[in-house]
Amino acid sequence: MSAARPRTTLRTLAAVAALPLLLTACGYGSESNDDGGQAKAASGAKKLSADSVKIGYFPNLTHGTALVGVQKGLLQKELGGTQIKPSTFNAGPSEIEALNAGSIDIGWIGPSPAINGYTKSQGKSLRIIGGSASGGVKLVVNPKKIKSLDDLKGKKIATPQFGNTQDVAFLNWIAEKGWKVDAQSGKGDVSVVRSDNKITPDAYKSGSIDGAWVPEPTASKLVSEGGKVILDEADLWPDKKFVITNIIVSQKFLKEHPDVVEAVLRGSVKTNKWINANPEKAKASANAALQKLSGKALPAKVIDPAWKSIDFLDDPLASTLDSEAKHAVKSGLLEQPDLKGIYDLKPLNKVLKAEGEDGVDDAGLGTK
């Protein structure tokens, strides 16, 4: 399958491919010191076709399915004697590199890194096998400096990373306003400042940025510091739904261990069902996992509004991923990609059918 590759000027992505020595700094393969409370494989339980499965995700609320699924042992329960080996990451490109290197087999990740990973490998590295979350992204600004969306012109607004999902969304929004910004430098009618979510609240407090287009819980952290939500990205999408977190798998692992992949998907579906049936308990479980992974739980004023803004679902919302790819092209971050085959939803639809749920659609981007 031929696929257009991202432009060579994508410095962040090129660095991931060409400078593996920097991967440690990016969080590559950075298994947490604590496993987030994961359940151990039951002694004597029957193993599937693999002794273990290496799973990657972010210590973010938008990865709540993985946080709760590992913390509550819901994923491990479906795997029996096949042990989960979790790793956490701080950036999408580093997780894609880990998948390509075999350091993880399955990962929770945002749409833009999945698109970039697929196109850079010419369709040979990964498949998207399920959805996990929608929403949870907001534009938060300093209300003393910005009263309306038009006031963003001339201001400094942070996004989490060059070329990441929120960076693409903000650049697309800017383009639709008719404003001009150089995608590479971030300079133009609005200054786009690429800032790690960990330091964005401090940058906001110091006044070095005027706002940020960020996922939860960073958005709610900014609000707790006096920021104001001026736009919820969900309001820009049909039915207010758009993919923020997918589940991906290496094609090699999918081919060699389909039973393990199916078990992880079954655990994900059951975890989402439990989350939606028990929102308060699920929020507490996610916060407990974050505390074990980062050493600090989120205060109620941050986690309460953040958790409410995220929808946990099994549908990967494939049509919105296609739209996000088009946004990246329009923004100058990506040449027109060939995404045919990026999805393989057959295992997920098998699981959903067994659970009495409706199947999901790949928007014409699935494998044959």
TrEMBL record:
Q: Which InterPro entries match?
A: ABC_SsuA_sub-bd (IPR010067), NrtA/CpmA_ABC-bd_dom (IPR044527)
Q: Signal sequence span per UniProt?
A: 1-25
Q: Which UniProt keywords apply?
A: Cell inner membrane, Cell membrane, Membrane, Signal, Transport
Q: Where in the cell is it found?
A: Cell inner membrane; Periplasm
Pfam families assigned: NMT1_2
Which family is annotated? Belongs to the bacterial solute-binding protein SsuA/TauA family.
- Write down what this protein is called: Aliphatic sulfonate ABC transporter substrate-binding protein
Q: Which organism is it from?
A: Streptomyces endophyticus
